[in-house]
Amino acid sequence: MKTTIDPLGLPAQAFFERFRGESLTFDDLCALQAKTIELGIHEVQLSTRITRNISINTPLVASPMEDISEADLAIAVALQGFPAVIHSNMSIEEQAGQVRKVKRFENGFVHDPITVGPEERIAKALQILKETGISTLPVTDEGKLVGLLTKNDYTGRKHADMKVVERMVPVERLAHQIVPIDELPEEDTARLSRANDLLLESHAGVLLIVNGSGAIESLVTRKDIEKNEAFPDSIKDRHKSLVVGAALTTKLEESRERAAELVAAGADFLCIDSSHGNSSHERAVLEHVKAEYPQIDVIYGNVATAGGALRGVEWGADAIRVGKGVGSICSTSQVSLGTRSQITATYSCARAVREYCRINGIEPRIPVISDGGYATFSAIGKGLLFADAVMLGSMLAGTDESPGSVIYDRQGRKLKRYKGMGSLEAAVRGSAARYDVQGFEDFVGEGVVGAVRSKGPISRWVPQIKTGIRKCLQSLGYRSLDELHEAVFAGRVLLERMSESGKREAGIHDLAEYRRDLPLE
Length: 521
Ligand code: XMP
Hints:
eight-stranded parallel β-sheet, 23 strands, single chain, binds xanthosine-5'-monophosphate, 521 residues
């Protein structure tokens, strides 16, 4: 007997119909174990589709927010199996530059490395180290590589006032660790493995790759190679570049230009970023982009109703983004209407889109992304009962790669700034378009400026999230999202509403004190 049903639980459709007229969210929901567990956590597959044509290996997306999705985070999450959407709160050139930076990234290779000049002072190298953590600095003069300065070459106390040329290792002594670019294979994996071999042979910590005129093209360090070889989940396009998306606004004129630059820069998909989606403005942008770039998938949203989701599908969207007024930094629910609790919104939209695609023979089905409000692994698991992927803001804010600035609280704990795109601070820098702000005299914010606890590097934090998602699927007995969704929408996974006292019971309780070993508070 493999299925383990319970006569008191309800199939998803009956459950939500039973609570018709109520907006439910994560904590309101219990999902009952549906099958005897016959697999280990690490046998659970996390692959899914983020848009009609793009498959990813981890069912997450990084939100297009100023304090989340820029190139460094986009690279780090793509190595972990999911894309970021580069936000549009910057000039078109800057945003296209961020996309290019992600597309140019190669496992282990640092392109356009930071350099110093021979006549600069060691103090400059110390400053670079303090600001960026980078200590390996090629020394260039009029574009040509003339030496290498690493932290083995100086101490701050003794050499700060000396010139770089006095402490660097000159190019004549670096022959064993310099390689012309045309001597490396073109293919990604082969190039990394050849660079690795050359580094080992050289006994050095860094390999410098130069072009025909002696200028530095890129460098690769032993530390990076070791770090970067271990990304089996990374998501790549057909040219082996990492996958990345980019945001558009709902302003048609601006979006025409932005879309053209972003597509030229290599964005794999676009996302029309609107807090109040399902509008005629958004439709105009969607139809323009689909007519102009039929090969580029477009995410449409944000919606919170089945009708809103279906309009997006009818108008040509390649994915639907669901979530209104539920983000951690969001005050939309306090200043406008149209918001809805996230689990009800996600189920309603996912079911409607699934049914619509089935009836109209749309194959593959249009994915649904549940965006906002996710603060625990079990919340992500509950969102993924219905959605194909979950979009994260706060859970990725506070990572080393996120762009938010670092601050310290009164207890000396490290925090990172995280603000809503509807906050005044973000709006004056450009997100006004997302919130249809005409002028600041009567500005009403839809988001706050806050801070979250520092979470360390993506390479340590995201694997924990992935294990959390695997635990969620495994605890119901399923080995993939496809298997889970099939069971949920066929009514084989039973749901119950958790009572208020049940919620208290589900939290940690009746302890004099406790410690949590996760950065989830
Ligand atoms: P989390 O909970 O992951 O939510 O931090 C991220 C999502 O919140 C949305 N967002 C906002 N919503 N006012 C809003 O109403 C804002 O200022 C704001 N900024 C972001 C957005 O959908 C994001 O993915």
